[in-house]
Amino acid sequence: MSHSATLCGMEQLNNDICYQALKTRDRRFDGRFYTAVLTTGIFCRPICPAVTPKRVNVEFYPSAESAIAHGFRPCLRCRPEAAPGSPASAGVHATVARAVRLIDQGMLETGSIADLADRLGVGDRHLRRIFKEHTGVTPQDHAKARRLLRARQLIVDSNLSMTDIADIAGFGSLRRFNDAMKKAYGQAPTAFRRGLKSPPLAGIKKDDPCARRDDDLVLRLRARQPFDANYLLAFFRARAIPGLESVGDRTYVRGFRIGGLIGLMICRFPNDNSGVEVILRGPARGAVLEIGSRVRRLFDLDADVPSITAQFANDPLLAPLIDKRPGLRVPGCWDQFELAIRAVLGQQVSVAAARTLAGRLVQGYGDALPDDLSEDTGVTHVFPQPETLLGLDLIGIGLTRRRAQTVSDVIDMFAAPDCDQKSGDALITEMTAIKGIGPWTLNYFGLRGLGDPDAFPAADLGILKASAMGGGPDKAKALETLSESWRPWRAYAAQYLWSALEGEG
């Protein structure tokens, strides 16, 4: 078996399957593998419109980083850097998945492999071994390739200056940036912007507060198809916290904080559901790469929905719901602390009541946005930090004493200095020990806060109602048993069941 076949085999794909997908340009495989053409030295996405090369002239790789590390240049037509996130390391090894995320966030730009290994709680030799085993490249090669891909994406998908891109992508200097891009792509970075035009989004007028300003930073993120933006917007609209979020027909707006800086984010969804255009205002926009990663998780842009729902195709309860909404996603969260508080406030109350309580918390304790950022958007504050809420008596926002104590315990947990270094399992374990947090809250936090694809709040009244409407169990224990056949994608099953309640109130 060749090296490339071994890599593809990690995703239950072999070279022959990859080549068949390449010949048909099947979009369901976009981001799952990359085709390297031996005769040209270029690698492409499986959806590339170029003439299909002969079988003997291609090799396959699970990630763009791996193809670059093996000496291939990214295609300028299909833009591998814009492909949905590669699952090459996701779900294969938890440590590798965390390492990839930290490298993508710039961990190796300021630290060493040893620092990364310490952060992950493993030895650096062990990290190098498992990283190479599961991704096909070393952590340094991944970081180097990722730097090139980030830069290319920011050139084409943002309006940042070349100097800003060089700095954000981690090149250290404009000269190093220019040299690296010319070597990798065969032309100067500025060549990628010639003839580029950003099409206007339908329904956005010039005087609309969500319209672009001249000094806005704009980032365009593509979604793996099919993508149901309408359902996502409806979900967030029903749960938008007053003052923190505002959701229009095709927009999602929120205040946010990153690294001690605050900003305003406007997400606009084009009518073709191709992805999201993100407008950033304020000093926090400098963290554009982290913001982009968070937005991708918030809207679940990288989910391979056809592969996920194939497991439900013959399920009498879920199949009709999938036919109705083939591009459904699992809404994520902007911040885990915010989602944990939302989940506790939402226990045993209506969605509207939970919004009201959260809105009082934001208005009472969240930092206000500057007027020049928030004008006419309906967004006025950012969510309060756990340190701000420490020791406060929260009964005043309308909580019972017992519920206020539970919220306070969650605040204490997230205010701990090492909280941001804890794994999802560790967070769930600590939350389980907090009095007043039950299975529903834990599963809801896992589903949205941790992005656990198998989280399933079987006792949720809405899910039970939807199950009964479709002829399924109306008791949590029976539904939990049935859900075993939906693993490991029960979070998507839950979302499809919730979608059945549209119009039910």
Question: What does this entry look like structurally?
Answer:
This protein has about 500 residues and is α+β, with helices and mostly antiparallel strands. The protein has helices at about 5-10, 15-25, 65-70, 95-105, 105-110, 115-120, 125-135, 140-155, 160-170, 175-185, 230-240, 290-300, 305-310, 320-325, 335-345, 350-365, 370-375, 385-390, 400-415, 425-430, 440-450, 460-470, 475-480, 490-500; strands at about 35, 40-45, 60, 75, 215-220, 245, 250-260, 260-270, 275-280. A five-stranded antiparallel β-sheet has the order 5-9-8-7-6, covered by helices on one side. It has a four-stranded mixed β-sheet with strand order 3-1-2-4. A hairpin with a 2-residue loop joins strand 7 and strand 8 (about 260-270). The longest helix has 19 residues, at about 140-155. It is globular, with a radius of gyration of 23 Å. The protein starts with a helix and ends in a 6-residue tail after the last helix. Residues about 1-10 and about 85-90 have low confidence and may be disordered.
